[in-house]
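REQUEST FORM: STRUCTURE PREDICTION
Request ID: SP-0412
Submitted by: Lab K.M.
Chain count: 1
Length (residues): 362
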Amino acid sequence: MSKIDFGVLVNSPTCKFHLDQLQNTDTTQWAIYHDAPTYFLQFQHKHRAALLHWPFPNDPKFDELVNQIYDHCQIIVITITELHNKSVDFMRRFDRAKIIYYIAGFLQEPLKLARVETYMDWFHTSRHFYKNYLPEILQRIKPGIKENYFDILLGRKKPHRDYINTYVTKRLRVEQYFMTYFNEHEIDFAEQELLWTWEQPGLRFIDRPKWTVDMIEYFGLKMSISQVIPIDIYNRTAYSVIAETCYFNEFAFFTEKTAKPIIAKRLFIMFAGQGYLERLRQMGFQTFDGIIDESYDKEYDPVIRWRMACQQLELLTQQPQDQVLEQIQPIVDHNFRVIMNREWYKEFSESLNTQFLQLLQT
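STATUS: Completed
RESULT:
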C-alpha cells in the first residue's frame, strides 16, 4: 500500500464537499482529518494543509485552531462567506504569509502578507434554484408598468436602513413604494408576521425561523428564506432598493440581496459601501449610470452617500415607468446573463485545485 503523504484538516462538511469537487486530483489518497487538530498534528506527512471555514458570527476557538496548526502547515485556506467587520478584523489579525482567504467580496485595502481571492458563494447559491431547479418560475415575473415604483425590503434595523425608512416616509407618497422594515434587531418572525411579507406559493417552513438565513423548503428544495425571490412583490413594483447587509467602506460583501434583483431583471439603487457598484462593474455587470446619477457610489461619507442615493430614488418616481423600463432593458438582460452563466463555483474550485496541486509539486 502506497504511503499517503498529504494530510488535510477540514473543519466543516462544506470544506469536505469542496475537496470532493476538485478535478484531476485523487483525494481518496489524501489523509483528511475532521475537526481533530490533535490527530492531524500527530501523524507525519510530507505535505500538510488545512481547508477551513470561518465561523459566523465569531468563535475565539477558531483563532486558537489557526494558531495551533499554523507552523505545521504549508498553506491554510480559509473561506469566508459572511464578510462582516468581525471577519475582516480576523483577516487583518491573521495577515500571514501561508494563509489564503477566499471571500464573498473584496477588501478595499489589501492585506500585506496573506493572499485574498474571491468566492462569490451567495451569487452561486442564490441563483441555483432559478437556474438549475425550477427556472420556469421566473416566467411568473410580469413585465411592464407596475402599481408601485419601488420595493424597499429593509429587513432588520441598521443605520442605512433607518435613513432610507425616514427619507422615504417623509418624502414619498405611500402609493409610490412597498416597504417592510422591522426597525429592531431582535425579532421573532412568527410573532410579528405583519412586519414581514413571505412569498407564499411553494414555501414551507421546516422550523420556526429566527433569521432570514434559516432554511425553508421552496417547491421541495431546501434553501435560505432570504434567497427566495419575492415574485408577488416584484409584480407590484417596478424597481428595487437594495439595502445590503453591510454599508462599510472598508470592504464590499455581495449577498443574495444583490443577486435577487439581478436575476429578476430589475433596476436597483444600492445602499452599501463606497465603490460597491464599481466592484460590480469589475465583475462584468452593468449598472444604471446615465439613466440615474450613480455618483453616490463614489462618496466616502455614508450619510451623504445615502442622501444622494435616496434623491435618485425620489427622482425615479417622477419619471414615466415605461420610458425607464425601456432604457434599462439591455442592461438588465446583460446582468441576467452574467449572474446566470458565469461559473462562480467553478472559478473558486479551480483556483482551490491549483493551490493544492502547486503544493504537492513542491
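NOTES: The first strand starts at residue 6 and ends at 10.
Reviewed by: T.R.
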